[in-house]
Write a structure and sequence with these properties.
Layout: H1 7-10, E1 14-16, H2 18-21, E2 27-31, H3 44-53, E3 63-67, H4 76-84, E4 91-94, H5 97-111, E5 121-125, H6 134-144, E6 150-155, E7 158-164
Parallel strand pairs: 1-5, 2-3, 3-4, 5-6
Antiparallel strand pairs: 6-7
Helix pairs in contact: 5-6
Length: 167
């Protein structure tokens, strides 16, 4: 009887899983609405006082989205002032948790050493966690397409061809 050969394991194809690029660390939302009078009015003196007394150490080495969940019209300096207290955070963005996750992946993809993928057939794993934003897939494709031999999406056993370099 012949041995079963795992052709996928012997193939030169490299599978990239975006979940592997996701850095660990807590994600937080700092909502400026919590410090507004009646959820809409920013009084500078009181705002500054509450910021001084807030425990900012909880955000050290964490990922933070700063937002305002109310429909208040805030002065531009309000979010900037909050940001000055978040210098120990790993990343700070203006936006919601989804925008924070996009920015986290943008950083991870930018830092990815693409030399290992030069001239190789690549599969972007497609059954990842749904918290991986679509923009991360797009960013990864844009980074790898110029250097890849070919790009696929999905799993090795059932992938969709996306790109093949011209010879």
């Amino acid at each position: 009887m012949e041995d079963i050969v795992n052709r996928v394991a012997k193939s030169p194809i490299i599978t990239i899983d975006l979940e592997d690029l996701r850095p660990s660390g807590e994600r937080h939302v700092v909502d400026l609405a919590q410090w507004l009078e009646s959820g809409f009015i920013l009084r500078e003196k009181e705002f500054r006082q509450v910021l001084v007394s807030h425990d900012w150490s909880q955000y050290q080495n964490q990922f933070v989205a700063v937002q305002c969940s109310s429909e208040a019209v805030l002065p531009a300096w309000a979010s900037l002032l909050v940001t000055t207290y978040l210098q120990e955070a790993q990343l700070v963005v203006w936006g919601d948790p989804h925008q924070l996750e996009q920015a986290i992946y943008d950083q991870a993809i930018a830092a990815l050493d693409s030399q290992n993928y030069q001239g190789k057939p690549l599969i972007i794993k497609g059954c990842s966690d749904p918290s991986v934003p679509q923009s991360a897939y797009i960013g990864l494709i844009r980074k790898l397409q110029p250097i890849a031999k070919s790009l696929f999406f999905g799993e090795a056993c059932s992938s969709v061809p996306l790109y093949k370099a011209k010879k």
